[in-house]
Amino acid sequence: MTVPAFTASGPNAAPSRMLEALGAIIAELAGERPLEASIETTLASLRAVLEADEAAIWLPSATSLSRAWSTGGSDTGAADVQAMLSTGVFEAEGIVGARIAGANRGAGALVVRLRRRLVAEERQLVLAVANLLSPKLAHAEKSRRLEVEVEVRTAEIDRERRFTDKIIDSLPVGLYVIDREYRIQAWNRKRETGMQGVSREEALGRTIFEILHRQPGEMLRREFDDVFATGRIHEYQMESMATGELRTYRISKVPMRLGDWAVTHVITIGEDVTDWKEAQSRFAHAEKLAAIGQLAAGVMHEINNPLATIAAIAEGLEFKLADAEKAGAVISPDTKEYLTIIDNEVARCKAIVDGLLDFSRPKQVLRERVDMNEVVERTMLLLKHHVRFKRMHVVRELAPALERVPQASSEQLVQVLMALLLNAMDASGGERGTITIRTKVGPTPGEGVIVEVVDQGHGIARSELNKIFEPFYTTKEAGKGTGLGLSICYAIIQDHRGRIEVDSTPGQGSVFRVILPTVDR
Predict the structure, then answer these.
(1) Which end of the chain is less packed: N or C, by CB atoms within 10 Å?
(2) What is the CA angle 246-250-252, rounded to 5?
(3) 372: closest CA among 340, 414, 344?
(4) Could you tell me the CA-to-CA distances from 453 to 387, 450, 504 in Å, in that order?
(5) Greater model confidence, 87 or 420
(6) Whole-angstrom distance, CA of residue 287 vs CA of residue 58
(7) Is 409 helix (H, G, I), strand (E, B) or coil?
(8) Do 376 and 484 lie in a common domain?
(9) Residue-level pLDDT at 5
């Protein structure tokens, strides 16, 4: 920046006074005071030394010029200033000014309004002050523009952070992040809910061992250390009763790197996969049923033919023994017992084969709308004469006005209920006890009717609940069951677009629940 030299050129000139004013202005603008205050003092000093009515700084606005700072009056208009900006220094109609350069938006002006013409030294003072103000205002404008950019970028980052937080909070999984000091750096909304929920304010900044207590601290530390050391994802499943029922969770520990190399954080994601696991089990069960159907279709004739031969020979031997006995021969009791065993075992093998055939070649049965209350009554009529069943006390709790099950086979549904009732009798040990069979109206047409068979028997262990519908799996003693009864029940109910469930407590009994769709009567 060049400050013009002052020279005396007229009788009214006061170079020394102009120089003193310029020196004071230079000192003011070079000081530590805020720019706003320095400009106001500079304008006041300029107005005083020139004995002016007004001193103002005009800067470009979005569409024109606007008065940014001023002292004294305010009679000068923007149009007057704009018209005179074509020259560096101008004087017209009592207005004297100098261009202030440097702003990206265009030139501004230092304007002085007074009632006389200025001498050369005074014009040089106005030009010098304009030159002094140009870099100051350009720097201030750049700083302000930078501040605005920083504010805009900060607002964008804050919006992006809030958006990311919203995404993480909306995930249907529990998620938290720890650093290498095991301190929690993120804790999503899912981790705050539920019976074991911990608020974000309580969790952030504390170590994970202070918050999670269901897993041993040393085991948890080893899992995190393994991810920090290897950079590999660590996945496992765990079961929990924290919600009051047994739920299965998939836990994933994912490495996170803020730089290029070392793992700096570990993201832990907990997802409830109970329904998925149950669906997988049902799918695996369906695959087993399909495989057994294919097996049965392939071997049924190969098995039935030799069984028929054995049965025929056993029957022939019985006739020969009877004839020999009539002729006076002495027949050993063991021989008769062996033949009886052969008959019984052939019959048992045939029952197993017949059960397999139900999977491979379903019988064509009559399909119609069925009233489940009527099915219950028919089943009870058939079981009424069963010797062991007479010792049981059976309670019927039938809901009135049940909707009918569409496209159903009453014969197959009787078969299901009979199997469930006989199982309930076996679970009670064949002793005197109470079995309850009840029907209920379901919550939706897709689950329109519910039939429950309740016993007070020995119950089923939790480890066996997922296996009882598998073919050939049985909890009964050897020789008392084929393990096909519940599998066939499962297949029949599935064919009716329903499902079968079981709740059991060892030592207290079981509840088998058949759920079927319904339609209006």
Answers:
(1) N
(2) 150
(3) 414
(4) 20, 10, 12
(5) 420
(6) 85
(7) coil
(8) yes
(9) 44
90: left (phi over 0), alpha (psi -120 to 50) or beta: beta
The pairing of beta strand 434-441 with beta strand 449-454: antiparallel
Q: Give the pairing of strands 174-179 and 184-187.
A: antiparallel
Range of 169-178, 450-459, 479-488 with top mean pLDDT = 450-459
- Residue 394 has a CB neighbour count (10 Å cut-off) of 18
pLDDT at 1 (0 to 100): 44
Domain with 131, as residue range(s), is: 15-146
Q: What is the CATH number of the domain that holds 119?
A: 3.30.450.40
Compute the distance between CA of residue 470 and CA of residue 464 in angstroms, rounded to an integer. Answer: 10
pLDDT value, residue 473: 66
Check whether 369 has a pLDDT greater than 70. Answer: yes
Structure confidence by residue, pLDDT tens digits, 13-49: 467 888 888 888 888 888 888 888 888 999 999 999 8
Given 333, 360, 387, the domain boundary residue is: 360
What is the predicted pLDDT for the residue at 12? 47
Give the total residue count for the chain.
521
Domain boundary among 322, 338, 360: 360
d(CA 289, CA 358): 10
Q: Which helix (H) or strand (E) holds 186?
A: strand 184-187
**Which residues fall within 8 angstroms of residue 160, CB to CB, at 6 or more apart?**
none
What CA–CA distance (Å, rounded) separates 21 from 44?
A: 11
Q: Are 187 and 251 in a shared domain?
A: yes
Same-domain status, 133 and 208? no
Query: Which long-range contacts (C-beta less than 8 Å, at least 24 apart) are formed by 260-267?
Result: 263/227, 263/228, 263/231, 264/179, 264/180, 265/177, 265/178, 265/179, 265/180, 265/185, 266/177, 266/178, 266/224, 266/227, 266/228, 267/175, 267/176, 267/177
E-strand ranges in 258-352 read 265-272
pLDDT at residue 29 in the model = 85
Strands 434-441 vs 393-397: parallel, antiparallel or unpaired? parallel
What phi, psi does 170 have (nearest 5°)? -85, -10
Query: 437 Cβ partners below 8 Å, 6+ apart?
Result: 376, 380, 394, 395, 396, 397, 417, 421, 451, 452, 453, 454
Residues 243 and 314 in one domain: no
